[in-house]
Amino acid sequence: MWTHRRTLTFALATLLAFNAPAAHAFSFETFDFDGVTLVLPSSPVESLRIVINLPARRLALVEGETLVASWPVAVGKPTTPTPVGSFRILQMAKDPTWAPKGGPIVPPGPHNPLGTRWMRISESGYGIHATNDPKSIGHARSKGCIRMQVADAEALYARVSVGTPVEIVYELQGWEDGKGPVSYPDLYAQGPQTQP
After folding, report:
1. Is pLDDT larger for residue 42 or for residue 154?
2. DSSP conformational letter for 86
3. Which among 37, 59, 68, 117 would be 20 to 30 A from 75, CA to CA?
4. 145 flagged as catalytic
5. Residues with Cβ within 8 Å of residue 71, at least 6 apart in sequence
6. Which residues touch 37 (CB under 8 Å, ≥6 apart)?
7. Cα–Cα distance, 185 to 165 (Å, whole number)
8. Which domains does the chain have, with CATH numbers?
9. Which residue of the set 4, 24, 111, 145 is catalytic?
């Protein structure tokens, strides 16, 4: 008969075995079957995460239930919307080179649309990055990526790592300090979304 229990460990050997940053704790699934115990890693127990609300055009860095920082961002245009869903930072680069499909390679520098920081969140190429077009911040102007002011992207980059969870949501109602409840524009004409 299988029994199931969840345990939390900070064992250094286990963290090294999974090549994980020491700052993360891991949750393990333990299964007991007729005297044989299997211990299998499940997903990391994370408290640091990025939450992006597309209609609000805001990126929040959250630790547990505490808001660490929040920045205005640019999101995808209605014709090239930013996808909603659960992602993770897959790759990070300082002073990245931009290699658009079918276009010329753009080296680091003032003409690079990725700015000084790049955080890839999907295999298909979506990411969070600085921008060389600061006037786009606060608008729906990108091809689906999340754009940030250079200083904001550099501050975020310094606080996250590969593997940090990223949640992109589409919430039309929110709360802003000093304003109270607010309604955001329905950028992609999707109407209210139900979050699981």
Report:
1. 154
2. E
3. 68
4. yes
5. 58, 59, 148, 149, 152, 155, 156
6. 30, 31
7. 26
8. 2-45 (no CATH), 48-183 (2.40.440.10)
9. 145
Specify the DSSP class assigned to residue 136: G
Q: Which of 24, 111, 129, 139 is catalytic?
A: 129
175 token code pair: 């709360």
Confidence (pLDDT) at 178: 85
User: How far apart are the two ends of the chain, measured CA to CA in Å?
Assistant: 32
CA distances, 113 to each of 81, 108, 110, 128 (Å): 18, 9, 8, 12
Q: Given this model, what pLDDT does residue 22 score?
A: 36
Whether 111 sits among the annotated catalytic residues: the reply is no
* Contact indicator for 109, 91 with CB cutoff of 8 Å: no
Q: What is the pLDDT of residue 16?
A: 27
pLDDT of 11 strictly over 60: no
pTM, two decimals, is 0.75
